[in-house]
Amino acid sequence: MAVASIKVSETPLVLYTLRRADDALILGHRLSEWCGHAPMLEEDMALANMGLDLLGQARELYTYAAKVEGKDNDEDKFAYLRDVVQYRNLLLLEQPNGDFARTMVRQFFYAAFADLYWRAMMKSKDTTLAAVAAKSEKESAYHIRHSSEWIVRLGDGTEESHARTQSAIDDLWAYTGEMFAVDDSERGLIDAGIAIDPATLHPQWLKTVTSVVNEATLALPKNNWMQQGGRSGRHSEHLGHLLSELQSLQRSFPGATW
Amino acid sequence: MYTQALNSSDNDDRHVEDAARAAQFQARIDADERIEPNDWMPAAYRKTLTRQISQHAHSEIVGMLPEGNWITRAPTLRRKAALLAKVQDECGHGLYLYAAAETLGSSREELVDAMLAGKAKYSSIFNYPTLTWADIGTIGWLVDGAAIMNQIPLCRCSYGPYARAMIRVCKEESFHQRQGFEIMLTLCRGTEDQKAMAQNALDRWWWPVLMMFGPPDQVSQHSDTSTKWKIKRFSNDELRQKFVDATVPQAQFLGLTIPDLGMKQNANGNWEYSPIDWEEFKQVLAGNGPCNRERLAARRKAHDDGAWVREAAMAYAEKRKSRQMAQAAE
């Protein structure tokens, strides 16, 4: 017997918080898949470390979403009992790990955004989100440093590492636009000073990304077509597999406490 | 590698026959002094410790695999974070121990290569599969519990870097052990399915865990010299008995049955267990455990798949160095 999915009342603030919580959980989960399989022990440590940072962010944000929603939901119900179409994370973050270059490019694109995003969100009028931002900003500052250094090493390393990293950039580039998109439900929160307008972060993000990519002797794609859909539950095929693994126990044992 | 600075070359080891030095060395051990990397030591002492510390390091690294198997399926976010942090701790222990082994003059690369080539051993317990979430609880409770029994005395081991590493490792292991017990307690207080899961895991892990303490004292190869050098302070059977005596009341508290129906408490309060199937132990050590091939294959795959990354990092470091030198020359 499988346990059914929960219902969520997605008011703008609940939805906004869930979107960021899902970002952190899904990327944290992806990073945790590396544990025991990284190219060197130091990277096993680093990837687990960043995974733990993100899991911590997810837990705080889910707990806050549950509080704002004021129903019977909690962090585990949000994580374990929503189906693919109820997940609200960015498409970029659910993309499979691939090789180490792909994982680093995904991490780099996101961390370069998250670092700016959380720093800006420290000024949110919502004190809980501002507090989460203050903690997350410290973490993302490390994530961007770690991933930028790897992009440079891999891009300017060997012919093989250069080719692998360029190919990851080419494949993942189309998922970066979604980070800066805003829909109607977020517009109101931005106007109220609870959320920030991510579009305002784009110039600085592009500057950072361009400068690291140049230093790495790599290039950004000319194609500017951007995929979207994660924020409204239209995901890639990869997320369902991730969730079936993540949720297997909660879905299989009704009413159990773990 | 920084072994050049250390007193570890063959030149020194040639003096192993130097009776005066050997006697002086033994006198230091007898006086409970710590031996440090630059101190003279018999070649056999160096060899024994290199083997033991590197096996310990390999065990931490291979041990990441059976538990890592459940990180993506941990049943709550709290459990997921705790398990990921735990497996990360093990990686940290591995790194720390490789560093301790390096102080004896072998590089991490050569030690890891020996493991990947199947020439170096790691704890046979990690050649068993983790089938359910209860295995994660059982590993914490029993495998880490047994590891602590083995490792607490090593905090007083005669070789300084190993003893100091063990102090830190034991602190973290005892946290893992409590965490594992708490997973078991939650399962045992849960649904019938969960309790059955916990019992099933105990049934599968109990005997392999008892084997973790090594062969019975009568046949143990290394114990005599290791005891003389204060690398080992208690015999395999002594530690095994201590572990059993500590564990029986915990199993009773959980309401689980240890899969040894002949077990009974003697007049001294010790729990007497049935004979261990040493043939199984021998087979697992010989590479015939349920997961030996998979564990080594997983470590080799991680190593091989990561080769281009390590090469890139080296190539980049070289380029950077030559650029800096070129700049300095301008």
Number of helices of chain B: 14
- Strand arrangement within the widest β-sheet of chain B reads 1-2
Query: Largest sheet of chain B, described in full?
Result: 2 strands, antiparallel
Structural class estimated from helices and strands of chain A = mainly alpha
Shape of chain A: globular
How large a portion of the residues of chain B is in β-strands, by DSSP E? under 5%
Task: Tell me about the largest β-sheet of chain A.
Answer: none
Find the count of extended strands of chain B (DSSP E, 2+ residues): 2
Q: Round the Cα radius of gyration of chain B to an integer and report it.
A: 22 Å
Low-confidence stretches of chain B: 1-10
Helix % of chain A is: 55-70%
Question: What layout of secondary structure does this protein have?
Answer:
The complex is a heterodimer of chains A (258) and B (330).
Chain A: H1 12-32, H2 41-69, H3 75-80, H4 91-94, H5 100-121, H6 127-155, H7 159-172, H8 184-191, H9 202-215, H10 238-246, H11 248-252
Helix pairs in contact in A: 1-2, 1-8, 2-6, 5-6, 5-7, 5-9
Chain B: H1 10-13, H2 19-30, H3 43-62, H4 64-68, H5 77-102, H6 108-116, H7 133-151, H8 160-188, H9 192-211, H10 223-228, H11 236-254, E1 264-265, E2 271-272, H12 278-288, H13 292-305, H14 307-329
Antiparallel strand pairs in B: 1-2
Helix pairs in contact in B: 3-5, 5-8, 7-8, 7-9, 7-11
Describe this structure in words.
The complex is a heterodimer of chains A (about 260) and B (about 325). Chain A is mostly helical and about 260 residues long. Chain A has a single domain (about 10-250), classed as Ferritin, core subunit, four-helix bundle (Ferritin, Up-down Bundle), CATH 1.20.1260.10. Chain A contains eleven helices and no strands. Chain A is globular and about 55 Å long. Chain A starts with 11 loop residues before the first helix and ends in a 6-residue tail after the last helix. The radius of gyration of chain B is 22 Å and the shape is globular. Chain B is mainly α and about 325 residues long. Chain B starts with 9 loop residues before the first helix and ends with a helix. Chain B has helices at about 10-15, 20-30, 45-60, 65-70, 75-100, 110-115, 135-150, 160-190, 190-210, 225-230, 235-255, 280-290, 290-305, 305-330; strands spanning about 265, 270. In chain B, helix 3 (about 45-60) runs antiparallel to helix 5 and helix 7 runs antiparallel to helix 11. A two-stranded antiparallel sheet of chain B has the order 1-2. Chain B contains 14 helices and two strands. The interface between A and B is large, with 50 and 46 residues.
